[in-house]
Amino acid sequence: MSWAQSVTQCVQSGGTLASVEDLAESNFLTEHADLYTTKTSGFWIGIHRNVYGQLLWQDNSALDFVNWGEGQPSEGQLDYCMELSALSGYWSILPCSSQKGFICKKLKCNITISISLNLFTGSQKGEAHGHMNMWILLTLVLIILIGMVFIIYFLFKMKTQRETEREVRRSSTVLEYSHVLTERDDENDSANKKEKYEHSIV
To answer: Are 9 and 102 in contact (CB under 8 A)?
Structure first.
């Protein structure tokens, strides 16, 4: 995407093109940008020259740190924009219409910084990627829901099986107890009959 398109994409996602405030942040960006060198050689960052030739960050933060490549910036290129090299991490000036990836920086509610690397050089690719992400997200949600249904079914089946086993054991215990009582009653009846019979003989 061009620098202007990249600015628009970042603003639409609730951020700005990245400002780089110190060497640690520059190293962080370079480390992550290096992963995408097969797709792009550099990323737009939020530094640009205004009409007076001043270098500014898009988010209006102070330009306290710079990481220029050799021979950069060139004074004769006032209307150019800045890229971060995916290989070296150094900054260089390019025509703003050049097609590059871009780095957005968003402030989260808890004031932590979220960096997103965007690699698409055309809006159609961005839309296709967005649709693909949506399908992936929907697929993951569906898989999670199906998994939860199986877990609930499995737990319900185990509970039902335990209750059935408990009922069988209870019935078996009652049956054994009633069998013991019946035997005792039979023995008592036999003893009573025998005693009665003995009394009648005497």
So the answer is: yes
